């Protein structure tokens, strides 16, 4: 997949693309249906499959102080877009110039002159342009004037049992610790990735070293303990682990963090890229009276997570214990 962070000087071979416009945060089942529609139209026209999104997320641009809300890092989103058959990603810089374009200017300057788009796919309720002055009706008219096709897709991914598939619904599920529901809507486990950072180095003193990640602008899941799997960059497998998310009240932590203790693993991975996928909620985070009480609870949590993965704990002799 090729990616561009501009809408000028676009090479000829990626002009004429069929694109979906949106934020695609999470790339959930609803997003996947929209992208499938783009693939279908692009295949029929022999055109590149494209995505047009804004960076930073317009919500963040307008509300710099709003709480973290993203469902995935830019890197994960890019990787998954490639897996979904997207050939070209236009990450349009959301700045004063873009913010101030009305619907006609956006279609003319960005879609037509800039990217040379052939066809646009959006959701029925899509709004765009200065103060959201543009909608599907104006987009269709302005695009038609320039020979650009428009397809508006009706809400996709309604599920009779689980309701709507949407980024807001997934955020809510994660804030309730309901990683199963989030996983269902995403069609994959919820994942957090980042570079392993230094902590207070107390974990190793109780035989539970933990690799630490910052959530950055990602939504905070319900604080507590989870069974997770970890992927260390460069390795082939996902390693089972137990994680804590939260502010670590027992040791007076501050910023919310994700800490993972990877089972049967002993390596320095500071500075390495780690991806964590959430499998199951175990318990709420709490403040313990002593570090020793916390240590004992962590040992029980680790056994609980091992049980979820169906793996046994190895004793000091290296033999699995019941
Ligand atoms: C499985 C697990 C569960 C944890 N649960 C809690 C908890 O309920 N409350 C808490 O204050 N800290 C909890 N912690 C965080 C520990 O306080 C933290 O990992 C420990 O202080 C070591 O971190 P450090 O090496 O950065 O100092 C948990 C850690 C793990 C690995
Ligand atoms: N099983 C393991 N799970 C996670 N990290 C491990 C493991 N074994 C060794 N490590 C390493 O130890 C570090 C964590 O040790 P810890 O004492 O908890 O320090 P910190 O407070 O800096 O996280 C990790 O960042 C990683 O490099």
Automatic annotation (TrEMBL):
The organism of origin for this protein: Algimonas arctica
CDD domains: FAD_synthetase_N
Reaction equations catalysed: riboflavin + ATP = FMN + ADP + H(+); FMN + ATP + H(+) = FAD + diphosphate
GO biological process: FAD biosynthetic process; FMN biosynthetic process; riboflavin biosynthetic process
UniProt keyword annotation of ATP-binding present: yes
Name of the protein: Riboflavin biosynthesis protein
GO MF annotation list: ATP binding; FMN adenylyltransferase activity; riboflavin kinase activity
Function according to Swiss-Prot or TrEMBL: Catalyzes the phosphorylation of riboflavin to FMN followed by the adenylation of FMN to FAD.
Record's keyword terms, sorted: ATP-binding, FAD, Flavoprotein, FMN, Kinase, Multifunctional enzyme, Nucleotide-binding, Nucleotidyltransferase, Transferase
Classification via InterPro entries: FAD_synthase, Riboflavin_kinase, Riboflavin_kinase_bac, Riboflavin_kinase_bac/euk, Riboflavin_kinase_dom_sf, Rossmann-like_a/b/a_fold
Gene3D superfamilies in the record: HUPs, Riboflavin kinase-like
Residue ranges of the TM segments: none
Pathway as given in its UniProt record: Cofactor biosynthesis; FAD biosynthesis; FAD from FMN: step 1/1; Cofactor biosynthesis; FMN biosynthesis; FMN from riboflavin (ATP route): step 1/1
EC number: 2.7.1.26, 2.7.7.2
Family in the record: Belongs to the ribF family.
SUPFAM superfamilies according to UniProt: Nucleotidylyl transferase, Riboflavin kinase-like
Ranges of residues in domain Riboflavin kinase: 185-310
């Amino acid at each position: 997949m090729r990616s561009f962070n501009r809408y000028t000087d676009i090479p000829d071979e990626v002009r004429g693309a069929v694109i979906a416009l949106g934020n695609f945060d999470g790339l959930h089942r609803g997003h996947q249906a929209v992208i499938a529609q783009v693939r279908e139209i692009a295949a029929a026209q022999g055109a590149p499959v494209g995505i047009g999104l804004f960076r930073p997320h317009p919500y963040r641009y307008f509300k710099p102080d709003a709480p973290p809300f993203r469902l995935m890092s830019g890197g994960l989103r890019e990787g998954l877009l490639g897996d979904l058959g997207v050939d070209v990603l236009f990450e349009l810089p959301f700045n004063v110039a873009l913010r101030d374009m009305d619907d006609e200017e956006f279609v003319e300057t960005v879609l037509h002159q800039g990217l040379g788009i052939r066809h646009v796919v959006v959701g029925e309720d899509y709004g765009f342009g200065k103060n959201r002055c543009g909608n599907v009706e104006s987009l269709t008219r302005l695009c038609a004037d320039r020979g650009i096709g428009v397809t508006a897709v009706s809400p996709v991914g309604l599920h009779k049992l689980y309701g709507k598939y949407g980024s807001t619904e997934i955020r809510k599920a994660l804030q309730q610790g309901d990683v199963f529901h989030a996983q269902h809507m995403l069609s994959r486990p919820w994942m957090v990735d980042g570079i392993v950072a230094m902590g207070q180095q107390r974990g190793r003193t109780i035989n539970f070293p933990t690799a630490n990640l910052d959530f950055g602008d990602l939504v905070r899941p319900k604080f507590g303990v989870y069974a997770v799997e970890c992927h260390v960059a460069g390795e082939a497998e996902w390693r089972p682990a137990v994680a804590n998310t939260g502010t670590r009240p027992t040791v007076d932590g501050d910023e919310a963090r994700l800490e993972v203790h990877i089972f049967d693993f002993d390596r320095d991975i500071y500075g390495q890229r780690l991806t964590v996928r959430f499998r199951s909620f175990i318990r709420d985070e709490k403040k313990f009276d002593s570090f020793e009480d916390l240590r004992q609870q962590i040992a029980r949590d680790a056994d609980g997570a091992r049980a979820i993965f169906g793996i046994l704990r190895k004793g000091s002799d290296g033999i699995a214990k019941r």
